[in-house]
Amino acid sequence: MTEPILQVKDVAKYFRAQQGSLSALQLGKPLWVHAVDGVNLELRPGEILALLGESGCGKSTLAKLLLQLERPTQGQIRFHGKDTSRLTSEEKKRFRQHVQIVFQNPYEAFDPRFTLGESLRRPLEIHGIGSSTEDRTRMIAEAFEATGLVPAADFLARYPHELSGGQLQRIAMIRAMLLKPEVLIADEPVSMLDISVRADILNMLLDLREQSGTALIVITHDIMVARYLADKITVMYLGRFVETGSADVIMSQPHHPYTQALIASTPALTAEERAARPLVEVTGEPPKPINLPVGCRFAPRCPFVFEPCRKQEPELFRLDTDHRSACYLGQTVEQAAEPR
Amino acid sequence: MSDVLLELKHLNIVYGSEYKQVTAVNDASITIRRGEVVGLVGESGSGKSTLANGILGILPRTAKLSGSMRFNGIELIGLNETAMNQQVRWRQISIVFQKALAALSPVHRIEEHMIDILRAHDPGIPMAQMRERMKKLMTLVRLPPETVRSYPHQLSGGMLQRVMIALSLLFDPPFVILDEATTALDVLTQRQILSEIRRLQHEFNLTVLMISHDIAAVAENANRIVVMYASQIVEDGPVETVIHAPKHPYTQALLGALPRLDAPTGRVKSIPGSLPDLSLSINQCVFAPRCAYAMDICWQGVPAVQVVEPGHTSKCVRVNEI
Predict the structure, then answer these.
(1) A191 and A222 in contact (C-beta within 8 Å)?
(2) Per-residue pLDDT tens for A10-47?
């Protein structure tokens, strides 16, 4: 098996809750937000991993940790086996080139005062790609033309506000791709875009893996996006991984009640699709990640909760070669979730 | 009493200054019957929110409406503000917006919002009656009655949207517009809110116009789908028919661009091209530049609305071939 590019070991990130909150003063001790709370993952070349979760589950914090935009409170992130908190400045530069990100909002991803040509040339200059300005401009123009942004010269001279969201997101992808990264992190890459242009971005991500073997981490709240892109899906809830496995298994045999609820809650286009979904009704909303319940974090909302869930937090139990679920229920969950 | 609650006929809404005029809604005709749940889908810029705000008469002053918009026998176009406030808004038609936090005042408790609205539309209403009404509404949307004492920031997204629904039902209106009412919520919460809405719709036989960009959410909750593209209504029909056998190339392309959870995963296709410039007058099929089926005839004038079968229409000349 090939060596992983990125390894995440027991990583946690706690943020101090906002000072000035009256309750914090009364308690006299600081409150901590458990944004990411002890997660492990490995990413190998050419793999597409989806981190699936709702708002506040910590998926974007994890992306920032992977990019070294935040330092973990505990645990280690390794890039080609080396702890990323101990990289030399030369290694760090290499890391920055090889671990790229595409953000959710393409309108905020470009400096409004630079033309797109200028914005795209800059990273190439920094990382010494291309021999001259003309050479770099030619590379960018070729990439533009390959994705249908023609005439390229026209787009290169434009400012971000002159383009649509779909076009800008394509350019954000190109900016990352030109650096030939080993890993691309896409943080909600299509959630701001209309359906008719989403497909372009999704297909660009698939092409990138096919053509350059880039490994992808796709962060999304949209189970359909995860299903479409990923080989492996990891489901997050309140800072923890609750289920991991191949995309097929997660979709066809979800084990964790939260995963089941996510699939059940996603609107289905047709009655047949609806009939194929699990029937899981969940009430309430996730608690704040400050005062977490003892035991399983999903227990307060879980329709299948029983004794052990409230006592100790479940580990990721192994169900199959690479299918794991942090739930005490064995096969009974599946049976319980069969359409009644 | 007629069966038809709202009838839009050849409605045009144009935003404009002296220099530039943008047609946001172009020749839209929709008939909504009592008790129907009509889903209005379209991408950003298609004019769906302008249409909703037009019905309520809450468009900016630069907007000019023409055509006809009859609600329960009253012509809404040209109706003065006083009449609109006394007879239509809240009492007949209410709206639930996407962003509750933007729609509510951050420095007023929920009850203050409710009392304000109740007093504005029913000046003589005694306090006890208002309390009674608020309590009843909170129970209706399954929130504890003391929630009315809260400020908006103290409530979660799901609770706020329940408050918004309670507000929309203050005067028992027969018609409620949901403008992307669950778009900002997480899927688990969205499902809870949508099932509440379905329950209330049944209980009060509400007529609902559900505006959303999420076709699947509309498919699960509406009886009928109206598809808008670039200011025009391009298809209108029963949910099952439109989803399984769409009769407009835009609806087909839109469904083809949607990643599916259960369908075999082939690649989805985007729709090439972009929205036309709505400040220019359009004398052709509005979708022709992006359409895979376009022929010469599509460029020669705006296609007439074709009846596929009773209750299902498409604005495409090749409707029988696709």
Answers:
(1) yes
(2) 999 999 876 555 555 555 667 889 999 999 999 999 99
